[in-house]
Amino acid sequence: MNNIKKDYEYELLAKYITNTISSEEMYKLLHWRLLSADNEALFKHYHHLRISASFIEYNEPEKIESALNQINQNIDKSNHPRRFTYYLSAAAVLIILVCTSLFLNFRNQSEAYITIRLANNEQVRKLELTDGSVIWLRGGSMLKIPESFDRMNRYVHLNGEAFFDIAKDSLSVFKVNTDHLIVEVKGTTFNVTTNTDRESSDVTLVSGSVDIRSLSDKNLLTLNPGEKITYTKSDNSLSLDYVDVNTCSVWRFEQLIFDNNTLSEIMEQLRGKFNIKVHLNTPGLKDKKYRCVFNSEEDLIEILNILSFIAPIHYEIKTDEIFITEK
């Protein structure tokens, strides 16, 4: 296995198998996993050891070390014997320490997830799944991917906003679960936004087709390219609009494009991008609509200056809050 080059993967694998790995470390491990077929095979071995019921049987140091040695018997250890032995021993000790808690976890949950959570001010993160699908996750969003994700088990859970480019597979659907609805596809590109505060979810189809289903798995409708559906929980309603698909998902290229958006919607995007609080103190301003484009290199002050030029507004910044009033 000549593609396993870096020492730190052993430490991450040890943390992964003992359920002590952080979200950032998990992201690094997933990236390493995709570098080669050898890495993928090794990861699956560790994954099976971690989640299988038989893992609980390895409650003695000798059995644990034997199992880990068997998994890694094909790895060329000549370049890092000391470091590998250290991580292997650490894994054995950590497994014993957390074995009881893992057993309780296995009893109380039917599925384990990898959670990727981005802060509001983090940049867009591009994720490549093992089935060839690509997801762009926006700052302030959270994506949960089942550890058992494979060709026949393709689904994720989203809170926030993401753009999906799903690899086509006629034998296996891909599902995006939100708190309000389910998006089901076989291969297409689309944008999903779910807002916990407003208790709503939007789905915009760029290409292909998607089925929108309720949480009870009832088929609601099928979207065509250029259509956007919005579900609002407060009145349990669905609304359908026609939008410009070139602007709805351009955010993944680190641009902010507003096409006939209200000032309230624009400020909501700035709130998420710059992690600030926005106060629109004049009610009449909220529903006025504007068209504008902001590049990634433009900072908050530059954007507010442009907005104050095209809209009748005055802004004032106090620490991490912006107060907008009418000129």
Describe this structure in words.
The protein has helices at 8-17, 23-33, 37-51, 61-71, 81-108, 245-248, 263-274, 300-310, and strands at 113-117, 125-128, 134-137, 142-146, 154-165, 174-177, 182-185, 189-195, 200-207, 210-213, 219-223, 227-232, 237-242, 256-262, 277-280, 289-294, 313-318, 321-326. Mean pLDDT is 76; it is low at 1-8, 51-61, 74-86 and 92-109. It has three domains: 8-110, no CATH class; 114-247, Jelly Rolls (Sandwich), CATH 2.60.120.1440; 255-326, Phage tail protein beta-alpha-beta fold (3-Layer(bab) Sandwich). It is built from eight helices and 18 strands. Strands 1, 2, 3, 4, 5, 6, 7, 8, 9, 10, 11, 12 and 13 form a 13-stranded mixed beta sheet that branches. Helix content is 31%, strand content 31%. It starts with 7 loop residues before the first helix and ends with a strand. By secondary structure, the protein is an alpha+beta fold. A hairpin with a 4-residue loop joins strand 12 and strand 13.
Quick gist of this model?
This protein is α+β, with helices and mostly antiparallel strands. The protein has helices at 8-17, 23-33, 37-51, 61-71, 81-108, 245-248, 263-274, 300-310, and strands at 113-117, 125-128, 134-137, 142-146, 154-165, 174-177, 182-185, 189-195, 200-207, 210-213, 219-223, 227-232, 237-242, 256-262, 277-280, 289-294, 313-318, 321-326.
Number of helices: 8
* H-E string: HHHHHEEEEEEEEEEEEEHEHEEHEE
Overall structural class, as computed from helix and strand content, comes to: alpha+beta
Query: For the terminal residues, how far apart are their CA atoms?
Result: 67 Å
Our count of domains comes out at 3
Number of strands: 18
CATH topology of the largest domain: Jelly Rolls
